[in-house]
Structure formats: structure tokens, C-alpha cells
Specification:
Helices cover 43% and strands 13% of the residues. The chain is an alpha/beta fold. The chain has a single domain, classed as Beta-carbonic Anhydrase, Chain A, CATH 3.40.1050.10. Strands 2-1-3-4-5 form a five-stranded mixed sheet, sandwiched between helices. Residues 1-6 and 208-212 have low confidence and may be disordered.
Length: 212
């Protein structure tokens, strides 16, 4: 991933967040703008990319960020991994987005009914076992579950765990040298969100997300 001449985006983090919210409103209402491709758009993108937001989301096939936010080609820089967890490769990709693409907004996007989070709950509370590499993935989620109430109903526990996992990933990003520097210097804004499978709506966890 190399860019010949990365440029500072022409939008602010708050503007980018409003574009995401507006796009999700169009998606929920069935008024998406991007049902097809236009050749002039493809041609312009051969010159480079300048996405206005970076999304760290889950690999779940039901949650494609471009559709969820009604975004066009070149609008979003997307990293997808089961459970929207951090790891060296994911962290490196996010660092690239900040250092070279200069996206002002970063979103950690979880979703209802996340299978990876549910598997982590099974490992923690039922002693479920998984294949070796899946277990490595789940180790990234388990710390997020420490403060949950196991007496909750299964549905409420999973919902709380999905939220806690998003917040855990956000905290890890804020604690990293690059993340803390970007937030402190006002270069980026970080927000968490959860996609509702039944409605298609994205619920942002806190509109007063960390910023400089």
C-alpha cells in the first residue's frame, strides 16, 4: 500500500462522522446513493485514495461498512477481522491510515450477535475449546469480558460483551503511542459504534468521543 503524494483530507473528523451518520440513515431508509459504479469515479481513483474515515470492523458478512454507511469507492479505509480485534497487522494497517492517508476519523465498529464475542463468552464461562488459531483470536477479546455480570440473560450478556469489546479495542488504540499522540495533537478522532442486525442502524456509543 503506497501513495505517491498523500494529502491532508479536506474534511474534519466531525464532518466525517456526520457523513457516516447521514449515510447510515439513507441505508436504513432504503435511499442509498451508490447502487452502481460510474466510470469517471473509477478513473479518478487510479490517481490515489483519500478516504475520510477508517473503519475497524468485524468480518461478518452481514456488516459490510461501505453499504452500511452508503459510502462510495475511495470514501472509507476498512480493516475487517473477526471480533474487530487488534493485532500487529491490524495495528500496522491503522497506523498506515493515520500516517499516510491522514484520515481524521477512526471508528471501531462492532455488531449485535457477534460470533467471535459469543465464542469468547463460551470460553470464559462454559470452558468451550476452539482450534488453536481461533483461540489466539479470542484471547484478544477475553480481557474485555472481565467486568461483565455473568448473571445476565444470555442475550443481555452478549449485548454487553459486544459493547465492552468495542470499548476495549478503543482503549487499546488510545493507549498505543501512535493513538495517544494522534488524539493529543488533534490529528484524529476515535469513536465506537455497534451495528444493529435487525434494523440496519449504526448506534454510536458516545458522541463525545475522545478528541483533542
Amino acid at each position: 500500500m503506497s501513495e505517491a503524494s498523500p494529502q491532508i483530507p479536506t474534511c474534519t473528523a466531525d464532518e466525517a462522522l456526520q457523513w457516516l451518520k447521514a449515510g447510515n440513515e439513507r441505508f436504513v431508509a432504503g435511499r442509498s446513493h451508490f447502487p452502481s459504479l460510474q466510470r469517471e469515479v473509477l478513473a479518478s481513483l487510479t490517481k490515489g485514495q483519500q478516504p475520510y474515515a477508517t473503519i475497524l470492523g468485524c468480518s461478518d458478512s452481514r456488516v459490510p461498512p461501505e453499504l452500511v454507511f452508503d459510502a462510495g469507492l475511495g470514501d472509507l479505509f476498512i480493516v475487517r477481522v473477526a471480533g474487530n480485534v487488534l493485532g500487529p497487522s491490524i495495528a500496522g494497517t491503522l497506523q498506515y491510515a493515520e500516517a499516510h492517508l491522514h484520515t481524521p476519523l477512526f471508528v471501531v465498529l462492532g455488531h449485535e450477535g457477534c460470533g467471535a464475542v459469543k465464542a469468547a463468552l463460551g470460553s470464559k464461562y462454559q470452558g468451550d475449546t476452539h482450534r488453536a488459531r481461533i483461540s489466539v483470536l479470542l484471547e484478544n477479546i477475553l480481557p474485555a469480558l472481565d467486568d461483565l455480570d455473568p448473571a445476565l440473560s444470555p442475550e443481555a450478556l452478549l449485548s454487553a460483551a459486544v459493547r465492552a469489546n468495542v470499548q476495549h479495542t478503543m482503549k487499546a488504540l488510545m493507549a498505543s503511542p501512535e493513538g495517544s499522540a494522534g488524539l493529543a495533537q488533534g490529528r484524529v478522532k476515535l469513536v465506537g459504534a455497534i451495528y444493529e442486525l435487525e434494523s440496519g442502524r449504526v448506534r454510536f456509543l458516545d458522541d463525545d468521543a475522545p478528541t483533542a
